[in-house]
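Action item from last meeting closed. Structure (445 res):
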């Protein structure tokens, strides 16, 4: 299953020109990405980043690619190749296997700002090659970062990293030590599993964002300014569980780069960026870790952060109660994932304890059809099933939807729409009032 950074497709009133990808502009963006990759010459990761790229229109699913596909689904049109992405595939900024090859997929339109566009393209180019580097994609929940203590000590870590970016010598060393103390204290509070989850997401999205920041063509000051802006936005993000690494990853990477490139050859699928920086800078942690963290808190605006996070925590508990009532205690429709593709926005997720994580907006496509959620869905911690409220399904849902259950047969409820594939139907679930999806063939078993 793919964890994809993307907003859900929302049909809007667009002009005819806006409904088509501009071929000339697309070819120019391909040239930009290739130029940035060739400038690096594979030096950053030891492999060239540029390769097969798909630009996909959000609404029309039109494809403009930089090369042919091996299965002949794309047709040449001047300098580019064009086609249509099937409904079964998610539209996202990601690396994806499609039509016989491994592609970088980018949502059209790309950012107009050249620096942002370059960062995005290089970020996604990294994802296409990361498996070859021994750094496989991973998207753990990091649910602890939605709790007050998790957010507090992460935000303090970021403030110390901000200060480290703006300083040198002994002053920088002190700020780096503070950041690593806050980080270690957080990991002590939430355990070894939490530390491993953070490190996994930093190796995935963090290193991708570091790649985009490093190779985008920005000078050192512009890169630092971009990272300061990222830290400033953290306070306004509704959740950090899937988005924190887009900020910590490039900061740790740039600090590591100040002492050379050897760290990039040392990183493996087990080590974290914080561990690498501590090793590189010879940072040792004090015995009284909690006391030292509390002592340093005030130097980085900790009291104001703690007060703000206390207010947020009270509101979070109210939201959690509402989600439990809607997605756990109330009637629900349960859908087994079965190798489904998942498309979501990582900036607004809400962990719900042992039950999984709430995704306010979500698109899931599987053998059973396509589920589009605009309000709230619950993904099991193992990603084995997705749950949506079943209040609007009604008592007749046990029959095949609209008789034949083919694509286009649609079940709609408040906050979600389900397009059923041929051969599937909704049946009563294990609890009274619940429903689930089953293949029609199951009736004969």
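Sequence:
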């Amino acid at each position: 299953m793919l964890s994809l950074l993307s907003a859900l497709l929302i049909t809007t009133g667009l002009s005819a020109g806006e409904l088509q990808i501009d071929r000339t502009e697309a070819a120019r963006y391909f040239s930009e990405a290739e130029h940035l990759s060739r400038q690096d010459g594979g030096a950053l990761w030891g492999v060239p980043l540029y390769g097969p790229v798909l630009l996909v229109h959000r609404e029309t699913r039109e494809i403009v690619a930089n090369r042919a596909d091996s299965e002949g689904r794309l047709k040449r049109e001047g300098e580019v190749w064009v086609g249509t992405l099937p409904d079964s595939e998610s539209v996202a900024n990601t690396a994806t296997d499609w039509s016989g090859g491994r592609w970088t997929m980018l949502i059209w339109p790309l950012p107009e700002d050249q620096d942002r566009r370059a960062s995005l393209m290089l970020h996604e180019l990294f994802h296409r090659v990361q498996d070859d580097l021994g750094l496989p994609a991973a998207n753990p929940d990091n649910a602890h970062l939605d709790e007050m203590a998790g957010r507090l000590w992460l935000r303090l870590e970021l403030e110390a990293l901000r200060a480290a970016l703006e300083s040198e010598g002994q002053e920088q060393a002190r700020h780096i030590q503070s950041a690593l103390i806050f980080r270690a204290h957080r990991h002590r509070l939430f355990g070894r599993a939490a530390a491993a989850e953070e490190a996994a997401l930093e190796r995935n999205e963090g290193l991708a964002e570091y790649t985009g920041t490093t190779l985008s063509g920005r000078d050192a000051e512009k890169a630092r300014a971009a990272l300061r802006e990222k830290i400033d936005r953290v306070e306004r993000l509704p959740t950090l569980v899937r988005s924190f690494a887009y900020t910590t990853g490039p900061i740790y990477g740039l600090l590591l780069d100040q002492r050379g490139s050897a760290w990039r050859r040392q990183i493996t699928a087990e080590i974290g960026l914080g561990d690498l920086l501590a090793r590189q800078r010879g940072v040792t942690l004090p015995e009284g870790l909690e006391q030292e963290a509390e002592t340093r808190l005030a130097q980085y605006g900790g009291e104001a952060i703690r007060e703000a996070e206390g207010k947020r925590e009270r509101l979070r508990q109210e939201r959690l109660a509402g989600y439990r009532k809607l997605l756990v205690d109330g009637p629900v429709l349960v859908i087994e994932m079965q190798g489904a593709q998942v498309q979501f926005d990582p900036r607004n997720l809400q962990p719900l304890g042992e039950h999984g994580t709430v995704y306010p907006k979500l698109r899931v496509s599987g053998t059973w059809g396509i589920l589009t959620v605009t309000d709230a869905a619950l993904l099991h911690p193992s990603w084995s099933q997705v749950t949506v409220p079943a209040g609007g399904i009604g008592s007749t849902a046990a029959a095949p939807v609209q008789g034949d259950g083919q694509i286009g047969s649609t079940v709609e409820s408040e906050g979600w729409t389900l397009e059923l594939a041929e051969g599937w139907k909704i049946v009563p679930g294990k609890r009274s009032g619940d429903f689930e999806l089953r293949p029609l063939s199951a009736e004969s078993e």
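Note appended to the action item: Confidence is low (pLDDT under 50) at residues 1-12, 395-408.
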